[in-house]
Here is the input.
Amino acid sequence: MNHWLFKSEPDSFSIDDLGKLAKQTATWDGVRNYQARNMLRDSIKKGDLAFFYHSSCAMPGIAGIVSIVRGGYPDPTAFDRKHHYFDPDSRQEAPSWFAVDVKLVSKFGRLITLDELRAHAAKKLQDFVLLRRGNRLSVMPVAKKDWEFILTLE
DNA sequence: GCCAACGTTGGC
DNA sequence: GCCAACGTTGGC
Here is the structure.
């Protein structure tokens, strides 16, 4: 089982929005970056766990945990002509973009803020992709040791 | 294949 | 709203 971090802008889709959905399950779609696409398509499997990260907001940080309940499959929004994420280059027989389904596992009692994660960067989270300068990946791997350390912060 | 221009991300 | 950093595009 592998660990991941998924970014979402809480103004569009927060961890509480996920919690309100039927079965607390949602399709993680709209990822339009090749590196992230490759992970969704090839590496993120049913049963994996991911941090739900709130980005582009007043208080960025990790809000909770989701599990992958369906592994990579062609992103339906890429085929939907009326959708904001429509991509005419993505074909049913050769999809350009991939999605997974996630289900809420837990919302943390408090947000583990980006500031707080940074404070540990020197000693514990040296390789954490999120903390790398200029990082823009919306889906990224989290090493098991980093995952477990972050859980102790909650 | 290079690289300048442009668009997007995301913290502040 | 600003801007640094990065990915993508397209002319050559």
